[in-house]
From TrEMBL:
Lineage: Bacteria, Bacillati, Bacillota, Bacilli, Bacillales
Cited Pfam families: adh_short
PANTHER family named in the record: DEHYDROGENASE/REDUCTASE SDR FAMILY MEMBER 1, DEHYDROGENASE_REDUCTASE SDR FAMILY MEMBER 1
Coiled coil spans: none
Protein name in the entry: Short-chain dehydrogenase
Biological source species: Pontibacillus marinus BH030004 = DSM 16465
Length: 289
Protein backbone atom coordinates (compact mmCIF):
# COMPACT_ATOMS: atom_id res chain seq x y z
CA UNK A 1 0.00 0.00 0.00
CA UNK A 2 1.25 3.47 -0.86
CA UNK A 3 0.76 6.85 0.72
CA UNK A 4 -1.29 9.43 -1.16
CA UNK A 5 1.08 12.29 -0.45
CA UNK A 6 1.72 14.28 -3.61
CA UNK A 7 -1.47 12.83 -5.09
CA UNK A 8 -4.30 15.08 -6.25
CA UNK A 9 -7.92 13.97 -6.03
CA UNK A 10 -11.28 15.41 -6.95
CA UNK A 11 -14.38 14.28 -5.10
CA UNK A 12 -17.29 15.59 -7.14
CA UNK A 13 -20.25 15.80 -4.80
CA UNK A 14 -18.41 16.04 -1.48
CA UNK A 15 -20.75 18.27 0.49
CA UNK A 16 -22.03 15.49 2.73
CA UNK A 17 -22.59 11.76 3.01
CA UNK A 18 -20.36 9.35 1.13
CA UNK A 19 -18.60 12.12 -0.79
CA UNK A 20 -17.58 13.96 2.36
CA UNK A 21 -16.30 10.80 4.04
CA UNK A 22 -14.39 9.76 0.92
CA UNK A 23 -12.70 13.15 0.75
CA UNK A 24 -11.74 12.97 4.43
CA UNK A 25 -10.30 9.48 4.09
CA UNK A 26 -8.25 10.47 1.04
CA UNK A 27 -6.97 13.40 3.09
CA UNK A 28 -6.12 11.02 5.91
CA UNK A 29 -3.76 9.27 3.49
CA UNK A 30 -2.12 12.60 2.62
CA UNK A 31 -3.86 13.59 -0.62
CA UNK A 32 -4.70 17.06 -1.83
CA UNK A 33 -8.45 16.88 -2.34
CA UNK A 34 -10.66 19.23 -4.32
CA UNK A 35 -14.16 19.01 -2.89
CA UNK A 36 -17.04 20.24 -4.98
CA UNK A 37 -20.75 20.73 -4.49
CA UNK A 38 -23.45 23.34 -4.65
CA UNK A 39 -23.79 24.30 -1.00
CA UNK A 40 -21.45 26.87 0.51
CA UNK A 41 -21.59 28.87 3.71
CA UNK A 42 -23.06 31.70 1.67
CA UNK A 43 -25.57 29.80 -0.46
CA UNK A 44 -27.70 26.69 -0.01
CA UNK A 45 -28.47 24.26 -2.81
CA UNK A 46 -32.03 23.11 -3.59
CA UNK A 47 -31.35 20.25 -1.14
CA UNK A 48 -31.48 22.87 1.65
CA UNK A 49 -29.05 20.93 3.81
CA UNK A 50 -26.74 22.62 6.32
CA UNK A 51 -23.51 20.83 5.30
CA UNK A 52 -21.10 22.85 3.13
CA UNK A 53 -18.09 22.21 0.92
CA UNK A 54 -16.01 24.49 3.16
CA UNK A 55 -16.79 22.24 6.12
CA UNK A 56 -15.69 19.20 4.12
CA UNK A 57 -12.45 20.86 3.00
CA UNK A 58 -11.58 21.79 6.57
CA UNK A 59 -12.15 18.20 7.69
CA UNK A 60 -9.87 16.97 4.89
CA UNK A 61 -7.10 19.25 6.11
CA UNK A 62 -7.66 18.26 9.73
CA UNK A 63 -7.32 14.61 8.69
CA UNK A 64 -3.84 15.23 7.29
CA UNK A 65 -4.39 16.23 3.68
CA UNK A 66 -5.18 19.51 1.98
CA UNK A 67 -8.82 20.30 1.29
CA UNK A 68 -9.74 22.79 -1.42
CA UNK A 69 -13.45 23.71 -1.75
CA UNK A 70 -14.82 24.78 -5.13
CA UNK A 71 -18.49 25.54 -5.69
CA UNK A 72 -19.57 23.65 -8.80
CA UNK A 73 -22.89 22.55 -10.26
CA UNK A 74 -21.71 19.55 -12.28
CA UNK A 75 -24.74 19.71 -14.56
CA UNK A 76 -23.37 23.01 -15.90
CA UNK A 77 -20.65 22.23 -18.42
CA UNK A 78 -18.87 25.58 -18.24
CA UNK A 79 -18.56 25.30 -14.46
CA UNK A 80 -16.99 21.84 -14.78
CA UNK A 81 -14.62 23.03 -17.48
CA UNK A 82 -13.55 25.96 -15.29
CA UNK A 83 -12.98 23.58 -12.37
CA UNK A 84 -10.52 21.43 -14.28
CA UNK A 85 -8.75 24.49 -15.66
CA UNK A 86 -8.25 25.54 -12.04
CA UNK A 87 -6.92 22.12 -11.04
CA UNK A 88 -4.56 22.09 -14.02
CA UNK A 89 -3.30 25.59 -13.25
CA UNK A 90 -2.85 24.98 -9.51
CA UNK A 91 -1.63 21.37 -9.54
CA UNK A 92 -0.73 20.45 -13.10
CA UNK A 93 -2.05 16.95 -12.49
CA UNK A 94 -4.94 14.82 -11.27
CA UNK A 95 -4.63 11.24 -10.05
CA UNK A 96 -8.03 10.35 -8.60
CA UNK A 97 -11.54 11.27 -9.74
CA UNK A 98 -14.56 10.30 -7.65
CA UNK A 99 -17.95 10.81 -9.34
CA UNK A 100 -20.41 11.05 -6.45
CA UNK A 101 -22.92 13.60 -7.77
CA UNK A 102 -26.47 12.59 -6.86
CA UNK A 103 -29.06 14.79 -5.14
CA UNK A 104 -31.87 12.60 -6.43
CA UNK A 105 -33.52 11.56 -3.17
CA UNK A 106 -36.14 14.36 -3.13
CA UNK A 107 -36.80 13.78 -6.84
CA UNK A 108 -37.47 10.04 -6.61
CA UNK A 109 -41.17 9.20 -6.26
CA UNK A 110 -41.20 5.70 -4.81
CA UNK A 111 -44.31 3.67 -5.53
CA UNK A 112 -45.08 5.48 -8.78
CA UNK A 113 -44.72 3.67 -12.08
CA UNK A 114 -43.71 5.06 -15.46
CA UNK A 115 -46.46 7.41 -16.56
CA UNK A 116 -47.29 8.23 -12.93
CA UNK A 117 -43.88 9.48 -11.81
CA UNK A 118 -43.33 13.18 -12.46
CA UNK A 119 -41.43 13.28 -15.76
CA UNK A 120 -39.45 16.42 -14.99
CA UNK A 121 -38.24 14.93 -11.71
CA UNK A 122 -37.27 11.70 -13.45
CA UNK A 123 -35.33 13.51 -16.15
CA UNK A 124 -33.64 15.72 -13.56
CA UNK A 125 -32.39 12.59 -11.81
CA UNK A 126 -30.72 11.55 -15.07
CA UNK A 127 -29.27 15.03 -15.48
CA UNK A 128 -27.75 15.05 -12.01
CA UNK A 129 -26.69 11.42 -11.65
CA UNK A 130 -25.77 10.50 -15.24
CA UNK A 131 -25.19 13.59 -17.36
CA UNK A 132 -23.19 15.29 -14.60
CA UNK A 133 -20.94 12.23 -14.28
CA UNK A 134 -20.34 12.20 -18.03
CA UNK A 135 -19.57 15.91 -18.14
CA UNK A 136 -17.16 15.57 -15.23
CA UNK A 137 -15.38 12.58 -16.78
CA UNK A 138 -15.18 14.32 -20.16
CA UNK A 139 -13.12 17.15 -18.71
CA UNK A 140 -11.36 15.18 -15.98
CA UNK A 141 -10.12 12.09 -17.77
CA UNK A 142 -7.72 13.93 -20.13
CA UNK A 143 -5.94 15.35 -17.09
CA UNK A 144 -5.81 11.93 -15.40
CA UNK A 145 -4.43 10.28 -18.55
CA UNK A 146 -1.32 12.42 -18.25
CA UNK A 147 -0.26 10.31 -15.25
CA UNK A 148 0.22 6.54 -15.19
CA UNK A 149 -1.90 4.84 -12.55
CA UNK A 150 -4.96 7.11 -12.51
CA UNK A 151 -8.15 6.01 -10.77
CA UNK A 152 -11.78 6.88 -11.57
CA UNK A 153 -14.58 5.68 -9.28
CA UNK A 154 -18.29 5.87 -10.06
CA UNK A 155 -20.28 5.86 -6.81
CA UNK A 156 -23.56 4.01 -7.33
CA UNK A 157 -26.14 1.81 -5.62
CA UNK A 158 -25.86 -1.92 -6.18
CA UNK A 159 -23.50 -4.14 -8.12
CA UNK A 160 -25.85 -5.57 -10.74
CA UNK A 161 -28.38 -4.55 -13.38
CA UNK A 162 -31.49 -5.56 -11.44
CA UNK A 163 -34.48 -3.23 -11.02
CA UNK A 164 -34.15 -1.05 -7.94
CA UNK A 165 -37.78 -0.22 -7.23
CA UNK A 166 -38.14 2.91 -9.35
CA UNK A 167 -37.54 3.37 -13.08
CA UNK A 168 -35.64 6.64 -12.88
CA UNK A 169 -33.61 5.64 -9.83
CA UNK A 170 -32.72 2.30 -11.43
CA UNK A 171 -31.75 3.93 -14.70
CA UNK A 172 -29.39 6.35 -12.95
CA UNK A 173 -27.67 3.82 -10.70
CA UNK A 174 -27.30 1.16 -13.38
CA UNK A 175 -25.99 3.79 -15.78
CA UNK A 176 -23.23 4.63 -13.28
CA UNK A 177 -22.13 1.00 -13.32
CA UNK A 178 -22.03 0.88 -17.09
CA UNK A 179 -20.20 4.21 -17.29
CA UNK A 180 -17.46 2.61 -15.20
CA UNK A 181 -17.38 -0.53 -17.33
CA UNK A 182 -17.31 1.42 -20.58
CA UNK A 183 -14.62 3.85 -19.42
CA UNK A 184 -12.54 0.91 -18.23
CA UNK A 185 -12.63 -0.47 -21.77
CA UNK A 186 -11.94 2.95 -23.29
CA UNK A 187 -8.97 3.66 -21.04
CA UNK A 188 -7.41 0.22 -20.61
CA UNK A 189 -4.39 1.21 -22.72
CA UNK A 190 -3.81 4.43 -20.77
CA UNK A 191 -3.03 3.03 -17.34
CA UNK A 192 -6.29 4.33 -15.87
CA UNK A 193 -8.40 2.09 -13.64
CA UNK A 194 -12.16 2.71 -13.59
CA UNK A 195 -14.58 0.98 -11.24
CA UNK A 196 -18.07 1.39 -9.83
CA UNK A 197 -18.47 1.26 -6.05
CA UNK A 198 -21.57 0.90 -3.89
CA UNK A 199 -22.13 1.29 -0.16
CA UNK A 200 -24.65 -0.83 1.68
CA UNK A 201 -27.48 0.73 3.69
CA UNK A 202 -25.82 4.12 4.13
CA UNK A 203 -26.19 5.81 7.51
CA UNK A 204 -25.72 9.30 6.09
CA UNK A 205 -26.59 12.60 7.76
CA UNK A 206 -29.79 12.76 5.72
CA UNK A 207 -30.78 9.21 6.66
CA UNK A 208 -30.17 9.88 10.35
CA UNK A 209 -32.35 12.97 10.07
CA UNK A 210 -35.01 10.95 8.24
CA UNK A 211 -35.28 8.58 11.19
CA UNK A 212 -34.90 11.34 13.78
CA UNK A 213 -31.76 9.85 15.33
CA UNK A 214 -28.05 10.68 15.63
CA UNK A 215 -24.96 8.57 15.15
CA UNK A 216 -24.89 8.10 18.92
CA UNK A 217 -28.37 6.52 19.15
CA UNK A 218 -28.84 5.33 15.56
CA UNK A 219 -30.03 1.87 16.61
CA UNK A 220 -33.29 3.46 17.79
CA UNK A 221 -34.19 3.73 14.09
CA UNK A 222 -34.47 -0.05 13.87
CA UNK A 223 -37.87 0.34 15.56
CA UNK A 224 -38.97 1.96 12.29
CA UNK A 225 -36.89 -0.09 9.84
CA UNK A 226 -35.43 -3.33 11.18
CA UNK A 227 -32.94 -3.52 8.32
CA UNK A 228 -31.22 -0.36 9.54
CA UNK A 229 -29.34 -2.65 11.94
CA UNK A 230 -27.11 -3.61 9.00
CA UNK A 231 -26.39 0.00 8.02
CA UNK A 232 -22.93 1.49 7.69
CA UNK A 233 -21.51 4.99 8.14
CA UNK A 234 -20.21 6.97 5.16
CA UNK A 235 -16.70 6.36 6.49
CA UNK A 236 -16.97 2.72 5.47
CA UNK A 237 -17.09 3.64 1.79
CA UNK A 238 -14.44 6.26 2.56
CA UNK A 239 -12.17 3.45 3.76
CA UNK A 240 -12.97 1.45 0.63
CA UNK A 241 -11.96 4.32 -1.65
CA UNK A 242 -8.83 5.07 0.37
CA UNK A 243 -7.67 1.47 0.11
CA UNK A 244 -8.38 1.33 -3.62
CA UNK A 245 -6.41 4.55 -4.12
CA UNK A 246 -3.47 3.22 -2.09
CA UNK A 247 -3.42 -0.20 -3.77
CA UNK A 248 -0.55 -0.49 -6.23
CA UNK A 249 -2.37 -3.39 -7.91
CA UNK A 250 -5.77 -1.68 -8.20
CA UNK A 251 -5.77 -2.37 -11.94
CA UNK A 252 -6.94 -5.91 -11.16
CA UNK A 253 -10.39 -4.48 -10.43
CA UNK A 254 -10.68 -2.55 -13.69
CA UNK A 255 -14.26 -2.43 -14.98
CA UNK A 256 -15.79 -4.15 -11.97
CA UNK A 257 -18.77 -3.15 -9.84
CA UNK A 258 -17.40 -3.29 -6.30
CA UNK A 259 -18.97 -3.01 -2.86
CA UNK A 260 -17.89 -1.79 0.56
CA UNK A 261 -18.58 -5.17 2.11
CA UNK A 262 -16.65 -7.03 -0.57
CA UNK A 263 -13.65 -4.73 -0.32
CA UNK A 264 -13.67 -4.95 3.48
CA UNK A 265 -12.91 -8.64 3.00
CA UNK A 266 -10.10 -7.84 0.56
CA UNK A 267 -8.44 -5.07 2.61
CA UNK A 268 -9.75 -5.96 6.10
CA UNK A 269 -10.82 -2.41 7.01
CA UNK A 270 -13.63 -1.64 9.44
CA UNK A 271 -16.29 0.97 10.01
CA UNK A 272 -15.71 3.63 12.69
CA UNK A 273 -17.07 1.37 15.44
CA UNK A 274 -14.73 -1.49 14.51
CA UNK A 275 -17.46 -3.56 12.83
CA UNK A 276 -17.52 -4.90 9.26
CA UNK A 277 -21.09 -4.47 7.98
CA UNK A 278 -21.89 -6.88 5.14
CA UNK A 279 -25.00 -5.59 3.42
CA UNK A 280 -24.72 -8.16 0.64
CA UNK A 281 -24.98 -11.10 2.99
CA UNK A 282 -27.61 -9.39 5.16
CA UNK A 283 -29.77 -8.54 2.14
CA UNK A 284 -29.61 -12.09 0.82
CA UNK A 285 -30.55 -13.60 4.20
CA UNK A 286 -33.11 -11.07 5.44
CA UNK A 287 -34.51 -8.92 2.62
CA UNK A 288 -34.38 -10.75 -0.70
CA UNK A 289 -36.52 -13.70 0.42
Amino acid sequence: MKSLQNKVALVAGATRGAGRAIAIKLGEAGATVYVTGRTTREKLSPMERKETIEDTAEKVTEAGGKGIPVQVDHTEEHQVQTLFEQIKQEQGKLHILINDIWGGDPLTEWGKTVGEHDLSNGLQIQKQAVHAHLITSHYGVPLIKKREGGLVIEITDGTDYEYRGNLYYSLAKISNIHIAQAMAADLKDHGVTTVALTPGFLRSEAMLDHFGVTEENWKEATKVDEHFIASETPYYIGEAVKHLAMDEDVQRFNGEALSTWGLSEVYNFTDIDGSQPHWGKYFEENVDL
